[in-house]
Every structure is written in C-alpha cells, then in structure tokens.
Amino acid sequence: MVFNSIPFVLFFVVVFFVYWFPLKKNTKAQNVFLLVASYFFYGYADWKMLPLLMVATAAFYFLGIGISRSKSEKEASWLRALGVVLGVGILFYFKYLNFFIESFAHLFESMGLHTNWHTFNIVMPLGVSFFTFRLISYVIDVYNGEVEPTRDVVEFATYIAFFPCILSGPIDKPKFIGQLHQKREFNYGQAVDGMRQILWGLFKKMLVADTCAVYVDDVFSTYTEQSGSTLLLAAVFYSIQLYADFSGYSDMAIGVGKLLGFRIARNFNNPFFALNMADFWRRWHMSLTSWVTDYVFTPLNFQFRRWGKAGMILAIIINMMVVGLWHGANWTFVVFGLYHGLLFIPLILSGAFMKKAQLTTNRIGLPVLKEFGWMLLTFALVTLGMIIPRAESIGQAWGYVCGMVNRSLFSIPWLKTRDYYIPKLVFPFIMFVVEWLQRRKEHGLEMGYDTRFTWLRFLLYLVILLFTWIYSEPGETTFIYFQF
C-alpha cells in the first residue's frame, strides 16, 4: 500500500475521519486507533513480519523502563548495551546475514577452500532499517537522559510503527513520543499545508522520479552498448530520480503527519543546491544524517580526538561506511560510503568541515558564479557516486564509469521518444526552478493564505493533478527506499 495508490487513499480517508470525529476529544483513543491503523498498514505490506515488529517493540519498551529503574550506572549501561546489540542483531540477521555468508563463501572458494555453506533465504522485513534505528535511539536517549521512558506502551508502539514513516522514514527521534502524549486539535492551516506538501511529493514521485526511471532503467540495462554521453545523462537522471523519489515520499509522509496533527522531522533541504559534500549531507536524508551523527560519528570522534584531524577523518570514514551499509547488503553500498567518506578529507584538512556553507545570490536571485561552480562540482561528485549503488556489482559500476569516460562522452546522447519522453524532460526542470524559488521554505508548494489568490492556487493544484494523470507512467510504482 504505497502513498500514490488507490488502496492508500481509501485507507487514509477512513483513518482521517475516524481519528478526527468520533475520537477527537480522546487522545488515548486516538493513539490506540493510530496503532491499530499502523499495524494494519504494515501488515498489508508484510503481514508475516508483523509479529517481529510487535515483539521488538515490547522488548525495547521494557528495556527503557529497566534503564530508568536501574539501581546502578553499571546495570543501566548493561541494559543500554543489550538494547543496542538487540537492535543491531535484528538488522544484521534480517538484512546482512545472507550477504556475509555469501561473501565469506566466495572468499574461501577464491583461496581454494570449498565450502558447503548456503544462504538461508532470509526475507528482509519492510522498513527494518527505519524501525530498528528508532528502537536503538530510544534506549540510548533514555540512558543519556535525553527523554523520559514512557510508561504508556501504546504511545511507544505508535511511535515505532507510525504508518506514514515506518516503511521509508523520516527517522524521528524519541522526542516524537511527546507529540503522542499531547492533546491534538485539528489545525486547518496545518492540514491545508499538509495537503499541498502531499501534492508536491506526488508531483516529484510520479512526474519526475518515475519519468527518469524509464530512461535510467533502459540505459543501465544496456550500458555496454551506450555512448559515454548517454551514460552520463542516465547517471544525472538517476541522481534526480533518487532524489525526487525519496524526497517525494518524505513530503507525502510529512504531509500525512500534518493532517493528523503531527510534526514529522524534515528529511530534505534542497540537497542539489549544496556547495560541498558536508553541506550536501546536511541537506540529504537529514533524519539519517542526524541519527548517525549523534550515535555513530560523535562517539567515534570523541574516542579518536587525541589523533587530531586524522582521528576525525577516520571517524567520518567509518560513519559514512555505516551510512552506505545501512542502505543495502552489497559491497557496492560499502564502497559508496567509503567514496563519500574520502570526499570529506579536503573539507576536514581545510577546516571547512564544521562550517555551514552560506549561499549568496546576485541581484536577479541567482547564485553568484563562484558558488554556482561549487554547486555544479558537488552535484557532479554526487552523481558519480550514485552510479556505485545503482549498479549490481562493483565491477559493473567500474565498467559503467569506464564506458562513460571516453571520446563518446562528447557525442550527442540518445534520447528516447517513446511514451513522450522528451516532453517529460520539462518536469525535472520545473522541480528545480520551484525548489530554488522556494528554497527558504519547507516544501515547493508552501505559500501564504491570501484569499485574493485562492482561485490561482486551485488552478495550480488542478494543473498538477491533470499533468500527473496525463504524463505519469502507467501502473502502480513503488518507492526506491522500500528496498533499504
């Protein structure tokens, strides 16, 4: 049940009206209903893994209470460590065990040692990367005194399984539980803004991401036959596809949250306008970046601080490899993380790593030439790196790059005309223009409430919906980050 599907629309209409009308004045009843709806939503996608989610939730709920009631620091520390090991263990078993078994089997066979190891064909639960990170951060924050452990099991379970976020985030911190404890009143302005954000996410997903996907899939599946310019164009389109797909999902999730009276963590802040790699990761998948910064990089950097900049470099490389491995069980993701970690080295050595980049514009509202150059360089480095996880293997990624960097790089790229592909190229352009004009706002359709322009706003909504109906790819498409 994906956001851009009829079943979800029907599901959410029922949830919305029951949540705000019969249950409006009863916060606890609202939470119980949200939990039931969230479990139904998750079960609809992967009902066999629903017991895992429920058991893990119960275990971490009691761990949080146990930490708060511990009679000594040592006991609390052991319970925290148990929670971290349990959370990582769930993630490792379901997401990485097959990967490591296969990797070691191939390693031993390359050394002439034949093994009879076999994969267990373990099915990865949907959203496991997201809900395990919520569970882990909860026990750590309780131990550190960042949050009080909740005694309300419904509130805690709803936080873990909250249906707008469980499959692909954002990864809200445990402080989100406080919103479940508060009484919620329907806010018309917030609800309208949520609808606009959903519409903007729908535009990015169905008119930008899915359009780019058609071209990207065709080129990557025949990359050995394509010119360098075509491979370069497909790589650029894949970066745009991945951004529009994931940020589109995040916009819809945040918009759904607003309709239910919640403020979900922002996940993207125009990352393709970044001026360097540190700036990019402060803007891209912000909830994950914040999570690994708090729970991986900061502790590592503290441990390695005696080594100065070398220690910081080591910490950031480990940190980015964790980010890469979080995305998938393949060596391509490990190399992807290492690639990004290495790109931080010049920033650390120059002292620019900890400084937030400030974007300045000229008189007509465009970036100054120097900053535009840094923006293009950052986008180029990001695009080159995106080839690695998009490929099925490191060898394929290397072959793709080698095929791109030759004389044919300066030829005219192939542009398919089937399914009106060339006219659809205007949609990524529109997305970038709108997000540049709205770069200081939360999303592309955030606007005021001046009643003089109501008709103009509704005309804009109708145009987006009409274009979505006419130009979107046929059939129901899922989101890329569901596989992570």
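(the above was protein one; protein two follows)
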Amino acid sequence: MTWRNVVLAIVGLWFIISAWALNPMHSGAYVTSAIIFGVLILAASIWGLAVPGGMSWRYYLTALFGLYMGLTPFFFSFTRFGAALWITMLAGLIALVGGIWQAMVAAKVSGAPEHRHHAA
C-alpha cells in the first residue's frame, strides 16, 4: 500500500502548492479549499504510511476530497483557464481513484484472516 500513499501525499502537497501556483482567478475561496483539502489528503496519506492496513474510511474520505478538488474549477469558475482546469481535474481524479483503490485494499487486508505462527 505504500506507493499509493506516497502518490496521494504528492497530490495533497500539490493541492496545497496550487493554492498559490494555480489560482488564475485569485480566489480566496479556492485558496482556502485547496489548503484545507490538500492538508487533509496529505495527512490521510501520511497516516496510511505510519499505520498501514485497516481504517478504509480514511481512504473513502480521501476519495471524496479528491472528487471535490477535481470539481473546484467548476465551483470557482476557472474553467476557461485550460491548464488550471486540466491539472486540477487530473490531480482530483488521481486522489479519487487512489482513495478508492486504497479503501478496497485496506478492506481486503482487514477482512483477511490472521496467520499466526505458533512455536512448537
């Protein structure tokens, strides 16, 4: 699960950076959204690296945050800025797919029976 958490961490970090680097409308609302949801995605992915397995709910939230961030160009009316539109939608899609993928893997791992080795 580690590489997907790293990718999600990069996406979260990108959203934080994009608050200033990719804000064509200079929207305070976009800055706030990008920082908050970027931090949440970053925190969930770091949490996943620190505490692997289980807790699939955190990945469903990550997916939801990615969906929201992918739609922000439409919410904050910067669809006419092609590069900002596509980069934001792509990063949101990566967070959405990565979050769902992680949730499915986490659910499968937590539902698997434990294998314990007993010393004879």
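Reviewer note on protein two: The chain is about 80% helix and 0% strand.
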